[in-house]
Design brief:
Blueprint (H helix, E strand, L loop, with lengths): L4 E6 L17 H12 L6 E5 L9 H11 L3 E5 L5 H14 L4 E5 L10 H4 L4 E3 L4 H11 L10 E4 L4 E3 L9 H4 L15 E4 L2 E2 L18 E2 L2 H13 L4 E4 L10 H11 L6 E6 L6 H10 L1 E9 L3 H6 L9 H10 L3 E8 L6 H12 L4 E7 L7 H4 L1 H4 L2 E2 L7 E3 L5 H11 L15 E2 L8 E5 L16 E8 L6 H14 L4 E8 L6 H11 L5 H5 L11 E6 L8 H14 L2
Parallel strand pairs: 1-2, 1-3, 3-4, 4-5, 8-11, 11-12, 12-13, 13-14, 14-15, 18-22, 19-20, 20-21, 21-22
Antiparallel strand pairs: 5-6, 6-7, 9-10, 16-17
Helix pairs in contact: 1-5, 2-3, 7-8, 8-9, 12-15, 16-17
């Protein structure tokens, strides 16, 4: 038997500016696809390697070296809205280093059509929708076999991509998912695990593409869910997040809650889930609490029935608040989602919905911008609906006929005092002797080195570069050259550029650094943030770390803080 080929499963994380937080990056897709490979007998021909949690901190250079060192024959990349641009860049570089590398792409961001994935011509095959039922057939075709001509699989051809014609198989979920004792089914280092108990959605919300993956709902039997929960608990899980699109839409929902309550009688586990509130009865709320469901997310979206009808949001709007009240009485943690930028939605509706939900006891309101994600109905109808949105991820709607860009900004500003969180961590302080938002990896840049461009050290994708010198303004060309070199080398990571002045330097130095940063295209994190055009970057920021034992004019530090606060978030 010939040597097995090596297949690498790659899923890059979402990066944010919280210095204390670790990137959350559940690798369920890799576990599911590896099981599909084994179920189809392809493990006799392929050896699986999964890029683990240690790679979540790597910058692109180190990640590329890590990939090349493992010399995979195939990379199966899971794409999300936050990682698709970076994944394309990294794998294009990997193919230059590994000629003949085969790239398979799938995940929520893989959609037909896509604004740039197919145009990039990186992937040899793209799977839109469920990958598990077709994965073994794809691997067989890569070995020279026949088949895999499924309608949800696109193969790279001489010109563009060629789609199959056969409908893909849709086996029941229990036949598709790994068993409860599957080796990869483990909680992360914090005791958190994700679990799918049902797949498919009966709703057809125009802002979501989930219904296109599987018509109807396929659910695991209650006994199977209990076995999986028991296995995760035995392996150290303390929190289990049910990732069903709507947890209480699955069959035998109350039966499942009663079974979880019996299993979790000692309260060692806590569960999180997303629910529809309009179907929550008093019995449902009591059973959720008894089972140990502690945190619930509810998509309210809008309080205007006409807006909900326009996006085909199902259910009874008049029953949403009573359902939320029943959950609140059980003292559950509620995250209540409101959307901004839906067709026909006004700023007044956003304000009214946010303020109404802010009065819910135990509730935390979250304002989410409408995203025209590839494959969703709203994206297909955007021209007819007059929706203006970003061309690159996250494809945020920036204006509609009912809400101008200025009104959208005003809606966010008026909602801010009522929100329980923000999409990214804002800097608490830009100037000070202690800066609580600095990243863990801090690299000192030698501004006196003979090289025209200072060397940039470090390996992590969230990094602080420290510039310490007694004449920083005189070294401003070297400082800006280092900023420019850093972003050019690593456009996908989050950067902090930290000055350590001996005394009050001219604020023109800060202006020069800001102008250098503004010369680069926006990062995903910048596009995610709602702000006036051309202002307040979040991905690459400047800080001033004052030296201990030195006195600084308070008016200078205040002016520097104000300047940086206007430029960055």
């Amino acid at each position: 038997m010939s040597a097995r080929r090596r297949i690498l499963f790659l899923q890059l994380p979402l990066l944010d500016n919280d210095p204390a937080g670790a990137a959350e990056n559940s690798r369920l897709a890799a576990a599911y696809l590896r099981h599909a490979m084994e179920r189809g007998g392809e493990d006799r021909h392929y050896e699986a390697v999964i890029a683990g949690a240690e790679t979540d901190r790597f910058d692109d250079r180190r990640l590329l070296a890590w990939i090349v060192a493992r010399r995979p024959d195939v990379v199966a990349a899971t794409l999300y809205v936050w990682n698709v641009e970076r994944t394309v860049r990294v794998l294009r570089a990997a193919r230059c280093r590994l000629p003949g590398l085969v790239v398979l792409a799938g995940g929520p961001e893989a959609a037909r059509p896509h604004p740039f994935l197919f145009r990039a011509r990186l992937a040899d095959a793209v799977v839109c929708g469920e990958g598990e039922p077709v994965f073994a057939a794809i691997l067989r075709r890569l070995r020279g076999g026949r088949g895999a001509g499924y309608a949800n699989v696109a193969w790279r051809a001489a010109r563009g991509y060629r789609w199959g014609r056969r409908p893909p198989p849709r086996p029941a979920l229990e036949r598709m998912l790994p068993p409860a004792d599957f080796a990869l089914g483990r909680p992360d280092a914090n005791g958190v695990a994700c679990m799918e108990t049902a797949r498919g959605c009966t709703a057809h919300c125009a802002f979501c593409r989930y219904p296109g993956h599987r018509p109807g709902i396929s659910a695991l039997p209650v006994s199977d869910v209990v076995a999986r929960v028991r296995a995760l608990r035995r392996r150290g899980a303390r929190e289990i997040r049910f990732i069903d699109p709507t947890f209480n839409a699955r069959p035998a929902f109350h039966e499942l809650l009663r079974a979880l309550a019996r299993l979790n009688a000692d309260g060692r586990l806590s569960f999180c889930a997303e629910l529809r509130a309009d179907t929550v009865t008093a019995e449902t709320a009591a059973l959720l609490a008894a089972a140990g469901v502690r945190a619930i997310e509810i998509g309210v979206q809008s309080s205007d029935p006409a807006v909900l009808r326009a996006v085909r949001r199902p259910g009874r709007p008049d029953r949403v608040m009573p359902g939320i009240a029943r959950l609140s009485r059980q003292r559950l943690e509620l995250t209540l989602d409101v959307m901004c930028g839906l067709p026909g939605q006004t700023a007044a509706d956003v304000r009214a919905t946010v303020r109404r939900l802010a009065r819910v006891r135990g509730g935390s309101v979250q304002l989410l911008d409408t995203l025209l994600i590839p494959g969703c109905a709203l994206r297909q109808r955007r021209a007819r609906l007059g929706l203006r949105a970003q061309r690159r991820p996250p494809y945020r709607v920036v204006a509609t006929p009912a809400m101008s860009a200025a009104e959208m900004l005003e809606a966010h500003a008026s909602a801010a005092p009522f929100l329980g969180g923000r999409p990214d961590s804002p800097a608490r302080r830009f100037v000070g002797r202690r800066l609580p938002d600095l990243f863990r990896e801090r690299v000192i840049v030698d501004l006196d080195a003979p090289a025209r461009v200072p060397r940039i050290g470090g390996t992590e994708n969230r990094r602080a570069l420290l510039f310490r010198h007694d004449r920083l303004f005189a070294k401003r060309a070297a400082v800006c050259a280092a900023v420019r070199a850093a972003v050019r080398a690593e456009p996908d990571m989050l950067w902090q550029f930290v000055l350590r002045p001996a005394w009050e330097e001219p604020l023109d130095l800060l202006d020069a650094m800001i102008a250098t940063i503004d010369g680069f295209p926006e990062h995903y994190a910048d596009r995610l943030l709602v702000r006036p055009p051309g202002s307040r970057r979040v991905s690459r920021r400047v800080f001033v770390l004052l030296r201990r034992g030195r006195g600084y004019d308070p008016s200078w530090t205040a002016e520097a803080e104000a300047l940086l606060g206007r430029a960055f978030y």
